[in-house]
Recover the amino acids of this structure.
């Protein structure tokens, strides 16, 4: 896909439109057997093409029902040579049968990337920027969004939660197959599956959107907090526009960390989750999921605004004085050189999540004060509306901000988002922050 940070992620030559993923997983053996169909359209003539699949052994590949040659390259490239070349513009379907014990990429500040064994003995898939390729073949880059269907077969006593709407399950011969369908386009890292002895909680939002919450054994106490999710969605809808998806909910793991991820329509949380994190992950449903980044250099579009949504919630629900909070946080910065030395746009591979949470909150608040609330509120809604179900970049956001505000914001954006130094006072304390 040509992402400068992760040049081997994703593949050119086609546009994936849908994944139909079927897996069987036995928690006792930790073995996964998969059978996935990838539907796509060729954007150029193809004699070969690649999918991303990491750590699992491929048994067979078919393209449009014909056996295809295949080989593995590097740590996640599945190279496929169809029997008949694919012409530009043609729709085609690739079926991959595979299996093995899924793996992960290890740990980072957001938790494990890939397939992880949960404390209950079940498993879950999550990670950013990578996770999907650890359990199904995929064009693994946010720029190629696609619909997602999952049929997951597990032994009786276990159950499965995933993205999208729940469909009827089928039980036979000591196994149950659970079906989930996400009909909205989805970036690959937002796909998830959770296998556990879930307690399910089902309801409906006021607008008719079905809600499914899943709680692993030991985290049922999170129900009271998750009960405020409809309030969170109502609040964010007023700020950002209508809720963009056809399903909602939360997945609560019994894991001893603060890991969370905005998996589409149904975020994943570990046991230490607080309400602010629910606000954060649900803000991502607009900033990150409905409107996804074009490249990982644009990650501030996701994290800076989801982090600032926590401030907006505190302001609305608790009467927080955000200007006072902002000044206090600026004054309390311990290592100024380190803090300001982290850029918010095009920060470099491996540095995507270094500044976007704390410095990102400050930057968005300063930006709000720079352009004023009317322009800020209008910009957020127009941005989401324009790019719904698509992708966008940070430079595109800058252009829209300049247009909506009527201000020349180039120096402001350079000072806050591109620079590795503290902004000049005019940009550090704009608007009401000057008082």
């Amino acid at each position: 896909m040509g992402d400068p940070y992760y040049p081997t992620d994703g593949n050119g030559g086609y546009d994936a439109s849908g994944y139909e993923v079927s897996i069987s997983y036995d928690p006792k053996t930790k073995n996964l057997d998969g059978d996935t169909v990838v539907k796509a359209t060729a954007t150029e003539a193809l004699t070969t093409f690649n999918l991303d699949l990491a750590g699992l052994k491929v048994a067979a590949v078919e393209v449009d029902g014909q056996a295809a040659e295949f080989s593995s390259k590097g740590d996640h490239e599945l190279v496929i040579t169809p029997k008949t070349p694919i012409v530009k513009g043609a729709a085609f379907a690739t079926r991959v049968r595979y299996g093995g014990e899924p793996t992960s990429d290890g740990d980072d500040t957001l938790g494990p990337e890939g397939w992880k064994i949960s404390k209950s003995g079940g498993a879950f898939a999550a990670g950013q920027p990578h996770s999907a390729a650890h359990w199904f073949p995929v064009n693994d880059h946010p720029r190629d969004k696609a619909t997602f269907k999952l049929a997951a077969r597990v032994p009786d006593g276990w159950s499965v939660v995933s993205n999208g709407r729940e469909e009827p399950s089928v039980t036979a011969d000591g196994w149950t197959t659970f079906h989930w369908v996400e009909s909205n386009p989805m970036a690959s890292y937002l796909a998830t599956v959770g296998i556990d002895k879930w307690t399910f909680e089902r309801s409906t939002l006021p607008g008719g959107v079905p809600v499914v919450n899943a709680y692993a054994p030991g985290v049922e106490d999170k129900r009271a907090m998750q009960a405020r999710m409809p309030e969170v969605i109502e609040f964010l809808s007023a700020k950002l526009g209508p809720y963009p998806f056809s399903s909602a909910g939360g997945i609560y793991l019994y894991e001893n960390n603060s890991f969370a991820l905005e998996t589409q329509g149904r975020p994943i949380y570990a046991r230490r989750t607080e309400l602010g994190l629910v606000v954060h992950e649900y803000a991502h449903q607009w900033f990150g999921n409905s409107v996804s980044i074009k490249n990982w250099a644009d990650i501030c579009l996701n994290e800076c605004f989801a982090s600032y949504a926590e401030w907006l919630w505190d302001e609305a629900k608790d009467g927080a004085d955000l200007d006072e909070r902002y000044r206090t946080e600026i004054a309390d910065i311990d290592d100024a050189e380190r803090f300001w030395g982290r850029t918010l746009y095009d920060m470099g591979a491996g540095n995507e999540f270094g500044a976007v949470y704390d410095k990102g909150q400050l930057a968005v608040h300063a930006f709000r004060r720079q352009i004023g609330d009317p322009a800020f509120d209008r910009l957020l809604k127009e941005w989401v509306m324009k790019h719904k179900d698509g992708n966008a970049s940070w430079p595109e956001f800058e252009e829209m901000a300049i247009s909506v505000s009527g201000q020349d914001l180039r120096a402001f954006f350079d000072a806050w988002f591109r620079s590795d130094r503290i902004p000049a006072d005019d940009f550090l304390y704009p608007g009401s922050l000057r008082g």
Q: What stands out?
A: Residues 158 and 197 are 5 Å apart (CA to CA). The domain at 291-434 is CATH 1.10.390.10 (Neutral Protease; domain 2). The first helix runs from residue 223 to 226. The chain has a mean pLDDT of 96.
